[in-house]
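INTERNAL AUDIT FORM
Audit reference: QA-55
Scope: verify that the stored structure record matches its stored sequence.
Auditor: D.O.
Record contents follow.
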Amino acid sequence: MSIETSSDLTTITDEEIFNAHLGGKLSVASKMPLNSKRDLSIAYTPGVAKVSQAIADDPAMHATHTWASRLVAVISDGTAVLGLGDIGAAASLPVMEGKSALFKEFGGLDSIPLVLNTTDVDEIVETVIRLRPSFGAVNLEDISAPRCFEIEKRLIEALDCPVMHDDQHGTAVVVLAALIGAARHTKREISSLKVVVSGAGSAGVAVTNLLLQAGVADVIVLDSRGTIHRERDDLNAVKAELAGRTNRDDVMGGLAEALEGADVVVGLSSSQFDEAAVAKMNKDAIIFALSNPTPEIMPDVAKKYAAVVATGRSDFPNQINNVLAFPGIFRGALDSGAKKITEAMKVAAAHAIAELVGDDLAADFIIPSAIDERVMPAVAAAVGALAESAK
């Protein structure tokens, strides 16, 4: 597998982009030959009737004689698409097609993008539940917070198959993997770190939850109004619950107050990091500025104060990219027959990613490349090893 260099990317034109998307990015190819009447009789009528009747008699055959057990449904309502926001279902479809292409390329899994022309939580949940016979797992994508939390929770409870909102958990897994590498490079344990998470949307909440699950004891989360703490009376239910488990010293104020004596800052919003605030961090600071296309602070500035810097961009070192996580997580869950994706699986996936860096660990290499072919099998194996507890 090869990839363009950052210098090559500057030559991409609008014409090239639009021509590449003409007719969409996906197609369906038959696995069976259809070159004769005999082929047609086996693949379709009358032969297919025997398979359908067998599934009706023995529902377990649905998993072995259809593609459903290997098919991921990529579901979105288009309310939180990339950096574009609420652009609607139809406009989100090119992104979901791209997600399906990534599933195939990096996970070896078929997937189908389904964009729903509704933002009603009940309607989304009911629609996905009714479609359950058609797929084996659900990847929720680009659904706005806080609605995404309820949608995911209800689908996990209702469906007997893996469900994951990648904007939340894929991001969280890769952030944790990068933090493990950064902590190792700076010769610290993640449990000793004071972490500030800037952004309390879907990714910010999931990153916080996974860091706590992995052993980070001191996390401060900020939303657009400042630090989330127990004294605030303007928090929604998700943030109020988060306030009870974070910000142990009840730090009040904004980013400058939160970063006083902090070891790590993770940027998951469009808010810029003031250089004076970053200067208040501890020695050997770790800065993850993950907003795209413009990081919260540019790497050349961040490196004045940080031992390790990461972004979400491919043209800077240490790209934190969800493609490191979600293909292997879903592949491992489906291969092992897991009914859900657990927090333990996510932590195991993060450790599997981090371990691939090995002795090559350096300030500019705390996490593998998004196209490292070792990543998906390692993540899938780590997830699959925990499958018994998720059946």
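Auditor finding: record pair retrieved intact. The chain has a mean pLDDT of 94.
Action required: none
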